[in-house]
């Protein structure tokens, strides 16, 4: 594949986005877990829970700072590498980003300061409220970012203005309550909760293996396992909702994920494994589970899910229809106020498919001069990388179900076995720490790579969205970003490992004194409860 400005711009944005999302899931989930721990402290007045809140809050703070730094840089990408995209859809895309900055980010950033420096200045309940506001602000940030991204996947509440040559918002309500955005929000946030739960569980398991900070570790495992089990179940359920949404908003993405080349009789089967072949347009050695895809994609046993080949034929029809709109648009652009009413009426009748005509810009300056072969090639371009999507999705789903099993096991042991965990289970908890990040990155790969060749699905092709930059410019900035982000990642890992090795260093004397004074009562009254586990053997 030839490396050009479009491919380099995509690579640079993908790199910055995936680096940024190394920090986001832990911020989302750890903020809520810390708030839960502080709530238990306020309810029980046990110093160990305050110590837990401060310890995990420190790790949250390190991660939060790095997430902010990488997030701001990522948003600058729209003006740097995707200036035509910003011009074309900025009236719509910019609104949720602005709200995220003005409301959610400032809410979060303000209360983060109070969280760290308000322990001795605020009452227990007031500080608990601050902690919950940090968690709410973190999740609000995700909401508005995902509303913006959801619009790129399903551009509702907007229309193209032939006079300004830009997309304009027609309904902020539709943009905000876009079904794709809402499904992505709850799915992404739940994935963040799982990430934090696995992180807390894994670090706590390491403490138990080393025989350090046992009381903090056992309580942290109890909270992480129960919270993580609920979150892991939510991820699967809400991921199913995303699949249902894709069945009528992004049919090509769903067909590619499934490796479904032909439209089959309803209900469609789910391909468990197989080897998609884009050249032959066939999935070899497919092992199918009857009915499952039909139930996921349509919630029925009678509706069909279109295959890739039929969707390519539909794309060709839309390209031809879009050419009518493009021809009328060029007349409007030339005649301006003098444009005949019938020309504007023609444009309005076919404007929905204008974006498909723009796919031809990759091959010819004026789409109206495109040959039949170019039209067919442009229609075939609507097929994303099927094999990559197929396997990325299945690996992500496999990891999701493994999280349910792990969390269910630890929750059971914490609730019914006095928190006595076998060493193999503790080592498993440590080993799986990186896997939620892998699952999250795979999820974003499926969401964004599956949308290609569109920046805004059905509206603006990726090939038209880039800035007028040279390959040399992009190579230099790409090298700079890789270097900077790698340094930031090393700093993050160094700080996290330093404070994990250091362990809880605040309120140590107060916590140990309280635990020694109440050890007998704790063992007698609630030795198997998550709030007061038995001392380590």
How much helical structure, as a percent, in the residues? over 70%
Strand order of the largest sheet: 1-2
Any idea what the radius of gyration is? Answer: 26 Å
Q: How many structural domains?
A: 2
How many DSSP E strands?
Answer: 6
Count of alpha/pi helices: 19
Strand portion: 5-15%
The unreliable regions are 526-537
Silhouette? globular
Structural class by helix and strand composition:
mainly alpha
User: pLDDT average, as an integer?
Assistant: 90
Major β-sheet profile: 2 strands, antiparallel
SSE sequence, one letter per element? HHHHHEEHHHHEEHHHHHHHHEEHH
Beginning-to-end CA distance, first to last residue? 60 Å
What does this structure look like?
This protein has 537 residues and is mainly α. The chain has 2 domains: 5-250 and 386-510, no CATH class; 308-380, no CATH class. Helices cover 71% and strands 5% of the residues. The protein has 19 helices and 6 strands. It has helices at 5-20, 24-44, 47-80, 83-117, 124-153, 172-176, 179-210, 214-249, 251-258, 292-298, 308-335, 341-350, 354-358, 372-380, 386-416, 423-431, 435-449, 471-502, 508-526; strands at residues 158-161, 166-169, 270-277, 282-289, 454-456, 460-461. The strands form 3 sheets. It has a two-stranded antiparallel sheet with strand order 1-2. The protein has a two-stranded antiparallel ribbon with strand order 3-4. The longest helix has 36 residues, at 214-249. The chain is globular. Residues 526-537 have low confidence and may be disordered.
């Amino acid at each position: 594949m030839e490396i050009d400005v479009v491919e380099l711009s995509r690579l640079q944005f993908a790199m910055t986005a995936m680096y940024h999302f190394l920090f986001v899931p832990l911020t989302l989930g750890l903020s809520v877990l810390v708030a839960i721990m502080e709530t238990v402290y306020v309810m029980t007045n046990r110093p160990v829970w305050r110590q837990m809140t401060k310890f995990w809050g420190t790790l949250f703070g390190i991660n939060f700072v790095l997430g902010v730094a990488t997030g701001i840089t990522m948003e600058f990408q729209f003006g740097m590498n995707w200036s035509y995209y910003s011009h074309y859809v900025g009236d719509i895309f910019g609104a949720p980003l602005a709200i995220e900055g003005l409301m959610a980010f400032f809410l979060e950033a303000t209360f983060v300061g109070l969280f760290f420096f308000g322990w001795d200045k605020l009452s227990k309940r007031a500080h608990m409220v601050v902690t919950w506001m940090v968690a709410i602000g973190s999740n609000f940030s995700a909401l508005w970012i995902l509303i913006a991204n959801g619009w790129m996947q399903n551009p509702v509440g907007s229309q193209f203005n032939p006079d300004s040559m830009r997309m304009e918002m027609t309904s902020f309500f539709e943009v905000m309550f876009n079904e794709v955005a809402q499904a992505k929000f709850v799915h992404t946030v739940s994935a963040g909760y799982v990430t934090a739960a696995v992180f807390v569980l894994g670090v706590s398991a390491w403490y138990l293996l080393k025989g350090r900070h046992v009381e903090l570790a056992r309580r942290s495992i109890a909270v992480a396992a129960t919270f993580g089990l609920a979150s892991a179940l939510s991820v699967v359920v809400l991921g199913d909702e995303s699949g249902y949404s894709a069945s009528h908003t992004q049919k090509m993405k769903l067909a590619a994920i499934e490796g479904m080349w032909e439209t089959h009789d309803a209900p469609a089967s789910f391909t468990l494994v197989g080897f998609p072949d884009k050249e032959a347009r066939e999935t070899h050695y497919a092992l199918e589970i009857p009915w499952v895809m039909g139930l996921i994609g349509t919630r029925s046993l009678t509706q069909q899910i279109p295959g890739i080949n039929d969707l390519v034929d539909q794309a060709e029809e839309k390209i031809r229809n879009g050419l009518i709109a493009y021809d009328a648009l060029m007349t409007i652009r030339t005649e301006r106020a003098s444009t005949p009413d019938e020309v504007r009426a023609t444009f309005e009748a076919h404007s929905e498919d204008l974006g498909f005509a723009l796919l031809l810009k990759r091959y010819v300056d004026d789409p109206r001069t495109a040959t039949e072969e170019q039209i067919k090639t442009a229609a075939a371009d609507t097929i994303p990388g099927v094999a990559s999507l197929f396997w990325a999705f299945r690996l992500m789903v496999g990891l999701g179900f493994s999280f349910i099993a792990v969390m269910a096991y630890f929750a059971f042991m914490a609730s019914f076995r006095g928190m006595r965990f076998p060493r193999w289970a503790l080592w498993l908890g440590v080993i799986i720490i990186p896997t939620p990040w892998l699952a999250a990155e795979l999820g974003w790969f499926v969401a964004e790579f599956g949308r290609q060749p569109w920046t805004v699905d059905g509206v603006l092709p990726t090939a038209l969205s880039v800035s007028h930059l040279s390959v040399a410019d992009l190579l230099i900035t790409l090298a700079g970003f890789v270097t900077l982000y790698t340094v930031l990642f090393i700093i993050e890992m160094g700080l996290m490992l330093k404070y994990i090795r250091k362990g809880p260093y605040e309120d140590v004397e107060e916590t140990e004194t309280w635990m020694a004074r109440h050890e007998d009562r704790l063992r007698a009254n609630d030795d198997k409860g998550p709030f007061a586990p038995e001392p380590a053997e």
